[in-house]
Amino acid sequence: MRTGIDLVLNALNFPPGFEMIVTNINIPDMFAIINWHELTLVPIPVNKYTLNMSPAQVEAAITPATKAILITHLFGGIMETEAIVAIGKKHNLIIFEDCAQAYAGNLYNGNPASDVVMFSFGFIKTNTAISGAIVKIKDPALYTEVAARNGEYHQQNTAGYFKKLFKVMFVKLLTNKTIYTGFYNLVMAWGKDFEEVIEGFTKGFPGDDIFKQIRHQPSIPNQRLLRKKLANFEQNSVTKRVQLAHDILSNIPDNYKIGFKNKNHTYWVMPVETHDPDGLIKHLRSNGFDASQKASSLIKLGKADVAPQPEELALENLVYLPVYPAMSRKDRHKLTQLLINFSG
């Protein structure tokens, strides 16, 4: 998907110094790519209960220098886009949707009026093809230009793609508790940070030169796998994920809940909020649940002269729960009780 937004921004060729209004939370590479195109980022905060941006704040941020809006859907929550898209169209802005965390089959394909809608199928994404993305472009002329630029890129080396596949196979092995425990003990004996080691396996684009790594076409095996995954996506997997979230969230205090007022949440991941993240992680891990603060590489842009509001999403207070649709009723209940009993 990084390739996609880079291609589109190259094709649009906005003059340096113009502005792009963005959801203030995203992965570092997305912000870096926009900065590389010499656009000024204008961040808008996310409400932690709805996972929406305020349309009023978006409109207030528009200036004569504004060229585009990037709407980023977080954690599987689908942001309410109608008002923001309408505002953007009123001001003749290009509307981008970052749906990397919001793929849900036929449940959401982007706002029909958005100009560019992007879906990611990277390693840890829903319906993963290990890497790859889909970029939907509304304007035929822009589509033709982007497609032509993409056609000039070389194809990813097949060996590089298979290397990623072997990494996935190894991480899959770690879902076995015996193998996981053995590998954990080995990493600890090396004196390494276990979460950083795992992050090294799952990180999509390690290294500093992001453009060297994204300016290529997917390999043929990658394209074939992505087509197969799209054609055979099990829509019921999202339903099961939502049911899992409801089983847990409906029984824990509201102060934990992130995005619980979002009307179209698909729960790609399930973070909870706490004033003591380290304490909660220790509490859950000591009882067999490998919770983490590093399950996501998201960062938050802020304005130095603006204090965060109480309802603003704060990444430093989040803990990601280790939940999955096949989780037993017993484990769902146990995790729920651990959250209820935690006093942090």
Describe the structure.
The chain is of the alpha/beta class and 344 residues long. It has a domain at 236-341: Alpha-Beta Complex (Aspartate Aminotransferase, domain 1). The protein contains 13 helices and ten strands. The strands form three sheets. A six-stranded mixed sheet has the order 3-1-4-5-6-7, sandwiched between helices. A two-stranded antiparallel sheet has the order 2-9. The longest helix has 16 residues, at 158-173. The radius of gyration is 20 Å and the shape is globular. The mean pLDDT is 92.
**Cα end-to-end separation:** 38 Å
Strand content: 5-15%
Main sheet: strands, sense, barrel = 6 strands, mixed
Mean pLDDT: 92
Q: What order do the strands of the largest sheet run in, or round the barrel if closed?
A: 3-1-4-5-6-7
CATH homologous superfamily of the domain at 236-341, by name?
Answer: Aspartate Aminotransferase, domain 1
CATH fold-type name of the domain at 236-341: Aspartate Aminotransferase, domain 1
Question: Which structural class is indicated by helix and strand composition?
Answer: alpha/beta
**Strand segment tally:** 10
Indicate the CATH architecture of the domain at 236-341. Answer: Alpha-Beta Complex
Helix count, DSSP H or I runs of 4 or more residues: 13
Residue ranges: pLDDT <50 for 5 or more in a row? none
Order of helical and strand elements: HEEHEHEHEEEHHHHHHHEHEEH
Overall outline: globular
Radius of gyration: 20 Å
Roughly how much helix do the residues carry, as a percent range?
40-55%
Report the top-level CATH class of the domain at 236-341: Alpha Beta
